[in-house]
């Protein structure tokens, strides 16, 4: 394929083979290639987002199974060490827990079906990890039990979650639910000793995320998480009748708001410091979220970045957190914009 740089977009046409495909239309019919200045419409393998490329800009259309799609500007981004701040994902990046949360989804669908032997299939994995609880449940309902509602599923999901969280916090529950990522302790302590600000960012609701963080820090004997993290941003609290809710279920990753809020509000970083800030993720939704927030993204292997086809959006991919330290501390040379 002949190399052709798309103006306004940090990918060459030759990189489409790494996971991006061309489309004639996008944005649920709002955009069409060759019409209104649209030069190309690109989508990764999972087809959850679409990139609308113009001569002078690129827009990212984030699809939604909950009926709330959104359109964002998409900019080139590059990290230049040493880092002033590192924004870290929780599930899969800091703590290995995705298997546990997919098991919770599986248990929820099993109850909806009245079939305790129900099991998710391998092809379901990209659709039941990395996004919001409601998105995961909506996918499962559409595929396995279309006669049931998301509201029913959410109630069951949180009933199961609250029970399992209580069991885990009391030293019982599912074995190996929350395992710190290899090198997490060394990684955090090194960044802290170098004066790098650390923000923890998760699409998980607070009642899900906090037990994970506490569990990991207890395992590593790291003390109070707030002594290590300078900001912790979750998707908020779940909504129950008779209590206040949040926007968390419709605006988490791949939307930019969790990463944007961690950097701007949690860490007080202005947009002028973007090149000194980097996000770390293991999921496709997280990578998109970081990039839409305007930051460069580093990937850690083990998640669905490759299978979802968003690898070209990374500045670099690593096998572990500790392998990133030379880059973060400015010991590597400058990288090109992506």
TrEMBL record:
Q: Can you name this protein?
A: Haloacid dehalogenase
List the CDD domains hit by this protein, alphabetically. Answer: HAD_BPGM-like
Superkingdom:
Bacteria
Organism of this sequence: Paenibacillus borealis
Check the record and name the Pfam families matching this protein.
Answer: Hydrolase
